[in-house]
Design goal:
alpha/beta; 10 strands; two-stranded antiparallel ribbon; 11 helices
């Protein structure tokens, strides 16, 4: 298992990348998932790179951004090349994005076909660079349900297309995450771990709210205190595959929650190892 913290968790905090790397290392994380905005804003300080991060015993697990699939093709590919270069700079082959801006059931066949063609173009490019594009399972995108995600994989039919499996959002869609991961396992390259107290609070993860400094955090809870049974999920998944995952925390007390959740995930890994 390789466990990362997400720099997006510190989006409203005044911490430097040096401080985050030092803290991640002291808390026994193996990697950092670097938010695309952070990577772009560090690009004029070239000494921050994969080698620098390795000096802390860390790697970059993934560069997480939002490729503009709805823009012109030249603009989309310009941004793709920029992210690909940044990913190389930070030593990761994984670039995360979303597909579409509305629910799959509300996406017409014509709109879907355009998105699929755009993803294929991106896949062709990143494959030429030795990289993969990870589509995140997320509401109001083409990967908001298991069926639509499997359909997208089939439609794209490209080895560079991989899945960032967000356990909470799979559960949100009404599917058992364990059953979903069994079907998606050959295509999964990364996981996002987060939790919620109950379904009534799921709206707090809507982008307009979760990225806002004054947004509600009601219902956000530590990983093993929420409605999704992560103990059961991890005991099933750890023996099934090598797990590369990020703790994605958007609430208060960031360091305290991430440290505790990281420790608990590592305990579950040891339990799974002992059982198998």
């Amino acid at each position: 298992m390789n466990l990362s913290l997400c720099t997006i968790s510190f989006r409203h905090h005044l911490y430097s990348i040096d401080q985050l790397a030092h803290w991640a290392a002291t808390q026994h994380f193996q990697a950092i998932e670097l938010w695309g905005v952070h990577a772009k804003n560090l690009s004029d300080q070239s000494h921050y790179n994969a080698s620098w991060l390795e000096s802390y015993g860390l790697k970059t697990s993934m560069l997480s951004d939002y490729l503009p699939l709805d823009s012109s093709i030249p603009d989309m590919m310009r941004e793709t090349r920029k992210l690909s270069t940044l990913a190389k700079h930070w030593g990761t082959s994984k670039i995360r994005t979303f597909v579409g801006r509305k629910a799959s059931v509300k996406t017409s066949k014509e709109e879907r076909a355009i998105l699929v063609e755009r993803i294929k173009m991106i896949c062709e490019y990143v494959e030429s660079q030795g990289q993969s594009i990870l589509v995140e399972t997320h509401p109001n995108t083409l990967t908001d349900t298991l069926a639509s995600t499997l359909q997208l994989i089939s439609e794209t039919n490209h080895p560079a297309l991989r899945v960032n499996f967000d356990v909470l959002h799979i559960w949100e869609s009404g599917v058992d995450p364990i059953e979903a991961v069994k079907q998606l396992q050959p295509h999964v390259s990364h996981f996002h771990f987060k939790n919620i107290s109950s379904r009534e609070h799921l709206h707090v993860f809507a982008p307009d709210n979760v990225y806002a400094a004054a947004g509600s955090r009601k219902g956000m809870v530590p990983l093993f205190e929420g409605a999704v049974n992560f103990r059961e999920f991890l005991l099933e998944v750890f023996p099934m595959m090598k797990v590369e995952a990020s703790l994605e925390w958007f609430g208060p007390s960031v360091k305290e929650v991430l440290a505790k959740d990281g420790e608990e995930v590592r305990k579950m890994y040891k339990i799974a190892e002992a059982i198998t």
